[in-house]
Amino acid sequence: MDDIKAVIFDLDNTILNRTMTFDGFTQRLIKTYFGHLESTEDISKRIIELDQDGYKDKPLLFNELLHELPWAESPPHVELMEFYGREYVRSSVLMEQAREVVQHLRGKYQIGLITNGQTDIQYGKIDQLGIREDYDHIIVSEEAGVKKPDPRIFQLALDHFGLSPEQCIYIGDHPVNDIEGAASVGMSTIWMKVNQPWQDSIKSGPLHTIEHLSELKKLL
Questions:
Q1: Which 3 state secondary structure label does DSSP give 70?
Q2: How far from chain centre, in Å, is Cα 35?
Q3: How confident is the model at residue 75 (pLDDT cuts 50, 70, 90)?
Q4: What is the pLDDT of residues 171-217, one digit of tens each?
Q5: For residue 78, is pLDDT > 80?
Q6: Full-prediction pTM beyond 0.90?
Q7: What is the tens place of the pLDDT at every residue in 48-64?
Q8: Distance CA 175, CA 177 (A)
Q9: 198 vs 146, 154, 171, 179, 191, CA distance in Å?
Q10: Measured between alpha carbons, how far is 213 from 4 in angstroms, rounded to an integer?
Q11: What ranges make up the beta strands (E) of the chain?
Q12: Where does residue 37 rank: exposed (0-12), middle (13-18), buried (19+ CB within 10 A)?
């Protein structure tokens, strides 16, 4: 690792606990719109199932929620989008020791972050957690006009830092978007094993696999 000059992270389910964040949003949604029901456990499970760990297209997800859920009155089409943008951000939860680990690494490396998603939502979560200043450079796919696993979004980070791929290591939870995507430009990778299963079709495996961010203190 002597040649590494920058460590670049994914956001959701790497720095931010996306599972807990969406669960918190789901509970806020149920409390606001489904107080007329005696039991909401099945609704909660269905919302989380439809979300597909955040990888379902949001307009499609909202359309399914509007048509499937037992709303007390007419489904709140426009209001639901606004509710999501506000309450999902407010539900943000960090991965355990995320800030501690990042600040530890700042003493040795430049620190970056690359995340897919809507600009206002992703920056909203980052600011809700108060971590924007922990990163030397942040790239959000909507703002950049390109998203992972497209190698161009990783190249944007390399260009900003003025480094070669061999001087950067990328850490993320998604085997294709993060690990294969970063490897496509020549970066070494560390796979954060959370919810996404490894795919045997991926040829470029990670340098290391971790299940907790604290493991990075020994690796880096």
A1: coil
A2: 30
A3: confident
A4: 999 999 999 999 999 999 999 999 999 988 888 899 999 999 999 99
A5: yes
A6: yes
A7: 999 999 999 888 999 99
A8: 6
A9: 24, 21, 15, 10, 9
A10: 18
A11: 6-9, 110-115, 137-140, 168-172, 188-192, 208-210
A12: middle
Kindly state the DSSP code that residue 176 receives in the 8-state scheme: I
Side by side, which strands form the sheet with 110-115? 137-140, 110-115, 6-9, 168-172, 188-192, 208-210
**Cβ-proximal residues to 170 (8 Å cutoff; 6+ apart), any chain:** 8, 9, 10, 114, 154, 178, 179, 182, 187, 188, 189, 190
Per-residue DSSP letter, 6: E
pLDDT in tens, 110-146: 999 999 999 999 999 999 999 999 999 999 999 999 9
CA-closest candidate to residue 44, choices 67, 69, 62 = 69
Peptide bond preceding 59 in cis form (omega within 30 of 0): no
Contact 139, 115 (CB under 8 A): yes
β-strand pairing of 188-192 with 168-172: parallel
Of residues 115, 184, 173, the one with CA closest to residue 151: 184
